[in-house]
Amino acid sequence: MNNILSYKIVQAHCDVPCGIYDPSTAQIAALSVARFLNLIADIDDLNNIENLARLNRLVQEKETHAGKVKSEIVIIWGDYFKEAQIEICPDIHNLTHSILREASKCKQETAQENGPELVRLVNEFTKAFWLTKGIETESHTSPYEPSLPLVRPILSN
Fold first, then answer.
1. Start-end of H helices in 43-144
2. SS3 content of the chain, % helix, strand, coil (to 5)
3. DSSP helix/strand/coil, 50
4. Contact 119/34 with Cβ under 8 angstroms?
5. What's the gap between Cα 95 and its chain centre?
6. How many angstroms separate the most distant Cα atoms in the chain?
7. What share of the chain in percent tops pLDDT 90?
8. Would you say 129 and 151 are in contact if contact means Cβ atoms under 8 Å apart?
9. Model pTM?
C-alpha cells in the first residue's frame, strides 16, 4: 500500500503573518482586467478562427486576473485588517465585498464598463490600506492602456 499523499498545487500568502502586504498587485490585476475587456470589445469578426482563438485567450486571462484581484484583496482584508485598522476604515468589509462582487462580474461578463469600476474600487481599498499605515496617497494616470487612475502611496526618502 502506498502511503504517499497526493497534493494539488497550493498557493498562499504566509499566515504567520509576515507583515508584508501591498495592494499594488491587486491594482495591476484590476488594470489588466480593464485592458482585457477593452481588447475583447475590439474583436469584430467572430467568424474568423484567429479572432476566436484570440477571444479565448483574452477571456481566460481576464478571468485569471479577476481571480487574482479577489485573492489579493481577501488576503489583505483577512490577514492585515484587524480591530485597529477597522476602526480607521469602518467600511472596509463593505468595500471588500463590493470588490469581490465586481471582480466576479468581470469574470462573468465582458462589458467594458466593469473594468474601470473594478479599478476604482481597488483604488478605494488602496487608499484605505495606506490610511491605516498613516501614509498619504496620490492618484496618477496609469502609463498602461486603458490609462486609468491608480492610487499609490507617497513615500518619503
1. 49-75, 83-88, 92-108, 114-132
2. 60, 5, 35
3. helix
4. yes
5. 13
6. 61
7. 86
8. no
9. 0.89
